């Protein structure tokens, strides 16, 4: 009886430690895209992988404004072609700011040419998703990025 | 080339026939009842509509003809009276191709008919190297984002600037090659498509969300094609998408390049992409 109780306790402990690895709590994202449709599609994918909070912004300037009050952000996903401030300029602003430079950024964009990918990576993007994408591709890139970010 | 005259008056049809068939290559038929327009105007090169009616009736008749047309649109030439000229101008603003006045003058009718059936753009090259990336992009984007299998139905050079659909997403292209690409479809299909993109029930009518979704759709189609055309003479830069709504709306392609139309079947509905792009 005593031995059984001990085993159950061990399983609970193991489950808790595995949970800490695979189910990160309070995941917070910022999604920057001028298309509300695309922001909703991305937000749905993020909720599927356990996002606690998804903050939306319509362009780079809006993204910088939202960041000021967003609190902790685990990953930023940004489009490239947007009005007012495009995704590449937004990325450069983030990397030049000590408060945000360590937040991993994923470019989610129709700019899928090799030269564009290299330009974004050079500017500090951690990952890249070409539109159109499947939910599985987006989720795997986000998970990959979160793994790198840990 | 085939023209159909829609008028209760057989005399008008006979006059048009006499003028146009004097020129080589025209075959002219007559349709007395607009209710039968849907089947009759299919595959016509030009629709000639008698607009000398009560203004409300004339506008309703034009609307009926426009609704009978598919993406393979024949331009509509109106025939009206001088007293009805304000209504004729209004109809042209609403999507008719042009008008001539009664009594019919041979030269004016012939010139207007020929002007309307001439493909837009100064060049007439249909380059498969250019159009194939847009066809592949459309198929891929709809499959990936909306799980919709579409089938290419027909390709042709566009004769006028009107869009046959209720909503169009327009992307301006610039750089090494410049022009525009447009996706145009009925509102019902747009609602279904955007609903599928979002994994939701389709909207009852075209709303801000549907408009936004169609903007994103043309963005993705253009971007996908852009990557495929990298390194070619048609490589371009994307602008920001614009969405236009309203039946018979007009979008001019200003570069002088031909406008290639590709019609796709999506379930029971159809939509079209229009590509007008020329190297600088």
Notes on the protein architecture:
The complex is a heterodimer of chains A (150) and B (280). By secondary structure, chain A is an alpha/beta fold. Chain A has a single domain, classed as Response regulator (Rossmann fold), CATH 3.40.50. In chain A, 52% of the residues lie in helices and 17% in strands. Chain A has a five-stranded parallel sheet, sandwiched between helices. In chain A, helix 3 packs parallel to helix 4. By secondary structure, chain B is α/β, with parallel strands linked by helices. Chain B has two domains: 116 residues, Response regulator (Rossmann fold, 3-Layer(aba) Sandwich), CATH 3.40.50; 152 residues, CheC-like (Chemotaxis protein chec, 3-Layer(aba) Sandwich). Chain B contains eight helices and twelve strands. In chain B, the strands form two sheets. In chain B, strands 6, 7, 8, 9, 10, 11 and 12 form a seven-stranded antiparallel sheet that branches. Chain B has a five-stranded parallel sheet with strand order 2-1-3-4-5, sandwiched between helices. The radius of gyration of chain B is 20 Å and the shape is globular. The model of chain B has no long low-confidence stretch (mean pLDDT 87). The interface between A and B is medium-sized, with 23 and 25 residues.
